[in-house]
Design goal:
Layout: H1 2-24, E1 30-35, H2 39-56, E2 59-64, H3 67-76, E3 81-86, H4 91-99, E4 103-108, E5 115-120, H5 121-125, E6 153-154, E7 157-164, H6 171-182, E8 184-185, E9 188-189, E10 194-197, H7 202-215, E11 221-224, H8 228-232, E12 235-237, H9 245-250, E13 261-266, H10 267-272, H11 277-282, H12 287-299, H13 304-314, H14 316-322, H15 326-338
Parallel strand pairs: 1-2, 7-10
Antiparallel strand pairs: 3-13, 4-13, 5-11, 5-12, 6-7, 8-9
Helix pairs in contact: 2-13, 2-15, 12-13
């Protein structure tokens, strides 16, 4: 009898220990983000990580890898959430992973992301504070550019203007070479009015745009959104013919397609954490908000965690709209009250 009682007590203690261990295991509460190299995804992941940590008691982990390995990790369950999937760039994977039921989509994290040729807004609208007159008030589309060729001289070719193309090796570089062959004004292709200049790197492209903007000079350059640069500088996207899938596929002679940027999560993880579904569905930013916070982040040591605190402290109405549970909102507000941006 005594031996049986000891055995039962031992069993209870072991089970209790095991139960306590499982309940306290941090692995159960981990949420793993498929982190990648660019600023916006790191910022978005840390916003969601902060909310899940302080509002839902989860422990965020930011697992860095390149884009495709990160997506494969999401499909396998190594990663749980990726908040910036550029769908058209990974269309085959996106369709396959969703059809297999391994990955769930939760809609766009911000409106479709545009790209194309940009000019500073002061060129079109002027800037009274800087004493800049609107030198090209009727510049709206790429077909208006020949009228203003003189504003964009190519220092290496006096007969033509200069347009800063995408960097060699980017798909957009070859695309604009073909566009400038195909777009015609008064019977002449744009390449007879302008040379497409390869800046050599994104750093050099950024420097050219920023340098011209700081001095109030005209410039035409390929760029895209959302980005820190366009969050800081006021630029205008020049119009091209309306996007048409067939035309774009065959000749590129229309506006670039705007990328769909989707939120995604591992299906199995979501099934185990139904409380986050509404948050994932409602989580969103505008392009303007994203550009603004990326510009702030770049000006503050490129620290996404600082940017999260700045953003959440200054956009309470927005993040309140993402969270349904009043208790979660209260916990987040209390956490933010304690935070200081160094």
């Amino acid at each position: 009898m005594k031996r049986l009682l000891c055995t039962l007590i031992t069993a209870v203690l072991v089970l209790g220990a095991l139960g306590g261990s499982v309940a306290a295991s941090p692995i159960e509460k981990e949420v793993v983000f498929g982190d990648q190299s660019w600023d916006s995804i790191q910022f978005l992941h840390r916003v969601m990580g902060y909310i899940l940590q302080h509002g839902y008691g989860m422990s965020p982990v930011y697992s860095f890898s390149e884009s495709m390995p990160s997506l494969i990790g999401l499909e396998r369950g190594d990663n749980h959430i990726i908040l910036e999937v550029w769908v058209e760039a990974r269309q085959e994977w996106w369709d396959s992973a969703r059809q297999a039921g391994k990955v769930l989509g939760f809609g766009k994290v911000f409106p479709n992301a545009p790209s194309g040729l940009y000019v500073p807004s002061y060129l079109v609208k002027g800037d009274p504070e800087r004493g800049i007159e609107p030198l090209a008030p009727d510049l709206v589309s790429v077909f208006d550019l020949p009228r203003y060729q003189h504003l964009f001289p190519d220092p290496e070719d006096k007969a033509r203007g200069r347009v800063y193309n995408a960097v060699s090796g980017w798909a957009a570089n070859e695309r604009y070479i073909k566009k400038f062959d195909g777009y015609k004004v008064e019977g002449k292709p744009l390449r007879e009015y302008f040379n497409l200049f390869d800046p050599g790197s994104q750093t050099a492209l950024n420097a050219a745009i920023r340098g011209a903007h700081d001095r109030g000079l005209p410039i035409i350059a390929y760029y895209w959104e959302p980005t820190p640069l366009l969050g800081e500088l006021d630029m205008i996207l020049l119009k091209e013919p309306e996007y048409d899938e067939k035309i774009f596929r065959e000749t590129f002679l229309c506006q670039n397609p705007a990328f769909s940027v989707e939120k995604a999560a591992n299906a199995k993880w979501v099934s185990e954490h139904p409380e986050v579904v509404s948050l994932l569905e409602k989580f969103h930013l505008s392009l303007e908000e994203t550009n603004e916070v990326l510009a702030w982040m770049e000006a503050h040591e490129n620290d996404p965690q600082k940017a999260v605190l700045w953003f959440l402290k200054n956009n309470a109405d927005l993040w309140h709209s993402w969270v349904d549970d009043p208790k979660v909102k209260e916990m987040l507000e209390k956490a933010l009250e304690k935070e200081k941006i160094q």
